[in-house]
């Protein structure tokens, strides 16, 4: 970090060839918890503190991470970064409901402009999706992807109405990821029914084929005498060729 960032910025300042204020303002570090081992995580935070925060550089550091012990220790009272960091705790104290509501409004309105069809959703529809998300942004984002899928009804209204039937009933408290579970289950069910409607090989296990395709697509052919190449497996399932 010293070689890549600190020294070059110092040379720019000393040479007066470029105003440091014109440099990008934020350095983004995502997935700090994916560094293997707490010692590595603590080491990265120490480097950030010594190299970036103590050298009067024109940057703000944005770190996104799960709250592993080494990371929490640095941010909590007594930690080296406690006084210089603004900590947003998304999982336990931060309420994302307002942001989810704004996100849904913005994305559905954007979809309306794209297809030229307005007034196909209501404030109550938005609120139903917000409550179903149970504070989990991933639920709202996945719902939008499903509703706005281009091969669905042109405006997305058909899938929105369908999704509203999958949300928890009135009086039932939504649990985290309930909506996602129902959404994925129904997507697979629809795909299974569509596959079986045109499948000439009666008796094929659709879900087994999908699972085989997933394993092959993400991990490559499994070792052993019987394997499927991606193109062949895709042809068996009648899916689009991966790009």
TrEMBL record:
Family annotation (Pfam families): NPHP3_N
Entries under InterPro entries matching the protein: NPHP3-like_N
Domain spans labelled Nephrocystin 3-like N-terminal: 22-66
Organism superkingdom: Eukaryota
Keywords, ordered alphabetically: Repeat
Protein name: Nephrocystin 3-like N-terminal domain-containing protein
